[in-house]
């Protein structure tokens, strides 16, 4: 019975696969009017940055990015509320390894430097808030594994502020441009460069906080978990 | 067949593999991996098709970049949920069946 189900599932997947192959093929070789890269390169002069992907992310389609950081914040809040730990930063989880400690003293500042460079580079070459946030979060993971104290991960205003900062600043810019300027998230001429840099800086911090707190939120010790399960 | 179109078709194969996995596999972690495979396949298809049509397309690349970040956050959240489920229910799959305990 189980074998038959598996075979029919395989057949179903194969059929769907062929439908997708056919549609992919027909999309690839049927001409359509209009080219998005052309439109982007035409509008690049107004975007305030030199790199097309950053321009799309934080200017032309900044609405997507705003919603994205919103999704990230919600995921982090849900993750933290799942973690039944008294504190996300528990000294009991720290390890003490002389080699890791020495390595970290070199690595952590360098990784901060790389993250800072990535934010700045995003304006004219591949880089930007998300890459920098990922590097920053990786630094946090390394610090946590190496046993560096990270007081800001304790539940409190600092953690909340860190999580929400990027979204809040982004939303604030959006609302101000809506009230003072033309439309929601339509940057006034000439200010785009600075607004994008401001948003990217705070986005980097928040993305790093979100990823790090999701990493930390995975419950580590079993003891309080099983007790709670029996209640 | 350009390399870009090859990417798109590779993405299609990944998507179908993931779809098969998410239905056929029992273990929740494997389901999650299969789900991620589907997502990666979709990203490959999007980027590959767009590049095949009109070269490097910043709109699609930005879209996929957004998608990757959301996928990472969703995966992390799913892992937290799966761990919590494991702690509370003591099981690694949604249905209780005979093969459950035997799986690594």
Automatic annotation (TrEMBL), chain A:
Membrane topology category: Multi-pass membrane protein
Regions that span the bilayer: 66-85, 106-123, 129-145, 157-180, 192-217
Alphabetical keyword list: Cell membrane, Membrane, Transmembrane, Transmembrane helix
Subcellular location(s) per record: Cell membrane
Na+/H+ antiporter MnhB subunit-related protein domain residues: 101-210
Example of a GO cellular component annotation carried by this entry: plasma membrane
Family classification: Belongs to the CPA3 antiporters (TC 2.A.63) subunit B family.
UniProt protein name: Domain related to MnhB subunit of Na+/H+ antiporter
TrEMBL record, chain B:
InterPro entries documented for this protein: CPA3_antiporter_subunitC (IPR050601), NUOK/Mnh_C1-like (IPR039428)
Highest taxon listed in the record's lineage: Bacteria
GO annotation, cellular component aspect: plasma membrane
Pfam families: Oxidored_q2
Transmembrane segments: 6-25, 32-50, 62-82
Keywords, ordered alphabetically: Cell membrane, Membrane, Transmembrane, Transmembrane helix
Principal location listed in the UniProt entry: membrane
Subcellular location: Cell membrane
Membrane topology according to the record: Multi-pass membrane protein
UniProt similarity note: Belongs to the CPA3 antiporters (TC 2.A.63) subunit C family.
Name the record gives this protein: Multicomponent Na+:H+ antiporter subunit C
């Amino acid at each position: 019975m189980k074998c038959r189900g598996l075979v029919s599932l395989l057949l179903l997947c194969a059929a769907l696969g062929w439908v997708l192959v056919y549609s992919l093929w027909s999309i690839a070789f049927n001409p359509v009017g209009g080219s998005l890269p052309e439109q982007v390169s035409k509008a690049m002069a107004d975007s305030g940055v030199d790199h097309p992907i950053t321009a799309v992310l934080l200017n032309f389609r900044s609405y997507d990015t705003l919603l994205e950081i919103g999704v990230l914040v919600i995921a982090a809040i849900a993750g933290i509320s799942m973690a039944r730990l008294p504190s996300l930063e528990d000294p009991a989880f720290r390890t003490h390894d002389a080699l890791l400690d020495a390595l970290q003293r070199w690595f952590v500042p360098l990784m901060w430097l790389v993250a800072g460079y990535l934010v700045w580079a995003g304006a004219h070459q591949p880089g930007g808030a998300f890459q920098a946030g990922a590097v920053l979060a990786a630094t946090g993971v390394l610090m946590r594994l190496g046993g560096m104290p990270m007081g800001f991960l304790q539940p409190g205003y600092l953690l909340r502020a860190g999580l929400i900062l990027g979204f809040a600043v982004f939303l604030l810019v959006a609302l101000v441009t809506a009230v003072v300027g033309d439309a929601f998230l339509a940057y006034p001429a000439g200010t785009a460069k600075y607004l994008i840099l401001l948003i990217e800086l705070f986005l980097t911090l928040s993305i790093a906080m979100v990823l790090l707190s999701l990493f930390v939120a995975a419950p580590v010790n079993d003891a309080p978990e099983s007790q709670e399960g029996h209640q | 067949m350009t390399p870009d179109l090859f990417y798109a078709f590779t993405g299609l194969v990944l998507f179908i593999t993931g779809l098969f996995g998410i239905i056929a596999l029992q273990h929740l972690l494997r389901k999650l991996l299969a789900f991620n495979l589907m997502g990666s396949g979709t990203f490959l298809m999007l980027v590959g098709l767009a590049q095949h049509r009109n070269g490097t397309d910043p709109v699609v690349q930005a879209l996929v970049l957004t998608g990757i970040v959301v996928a990472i956050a969703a995966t992390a959240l799913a892992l937290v949920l799966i761990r919590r489920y494991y702690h509370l229910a003591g099981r690694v799959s949604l249905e209780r069946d005979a093969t459950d305990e035997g799986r690594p």
